[in-house]
Amino acid sequence: MWVPSRMQGAPIMTTGTDRPLDRDQSPCVRPTRAGTARASGCRPGPVGDKMRPSRPRLIPTPTVLLGLAPFPQARPKTSCTIEVAVRPAPDGGLALRYRLRGALDQLVIPPAHTPGAADGLWRHTCFEAFVARAGVSAYREFNFSPCSRWAVYAFRGYRERDPGGDPVAAPLLAVARGDGHLEVDATIPAAALPPATAAGADLQVGLTAVVEHADGALTYWALRHPAAQPDFHHRDGFALRLDAAAFAPPLQGRP
Prior knowledge:
Blueprint: E1 6-7, E2 14-15, E3 45-46, E4 63-70, E5 80-88, E6 94-102, E7 107-109, E8 116-117, E9 126-133, E10 139-144, E11 149-157, E12 160-161, E13 172-178, E14 181-188, E15 203-213, E16 218-222, E17 240-242
Parallel strand pairs: 8-11
Antiparallel strand pairs: 1-17, 2-4, 3-7, 4-5, 4-16, 5-6, 6-14, 7-15, 9-10, 9-15, 10-11, 11-12, 13-14, 15-16, 15-17
């Protein structure tokens, strides 16, 4: 079974095809955030869902389920939770399933839009991943909006953009809204991940989210909040370490 090589300071849980993860067991780790001025990509729109408990879904093996937490000094007024299921994609990429549970009628969720790249998605409810190779200062930021738009940015180092390094391969998104929950499936193809500069360079991942509330306030969620202010770009927030062997493109002829 594939499992993360290390989770820095946070519990993890793997699930099998026949064993759903009980909601009470979902681990909660600590978060981070950061943003630069960009034009907005999706206009927000409320979703009027009533809160109702939902049965945990079976998650295919091998999967790790992690909980995000809001920035401690800015707790949300609206009760909600965010979980992220992580697993390797068939091509050696990264498959992520974000699930937001809560009173969605008290949140602002961008309405459906034509899929495609857009800037400024983090200005509204948005799910994100920050991915680097262990021992390398460069990293990539992935934004996934519930409106079906996405963004990818390459950085040479902390907040230092590398426009020439932005990957050409686009992530794949699927969005589902239910009664009291919002689910975004995002698949990052292997070609969009940071390139390995040495054999066995593990992935370091920061899983994050921005949630917009009905009053316009934003709350910032992540695995870990290492700084005094929300800062998703802080490398100590890349708390999930994944074995490089699980994220190598499959060999030709391999079953």
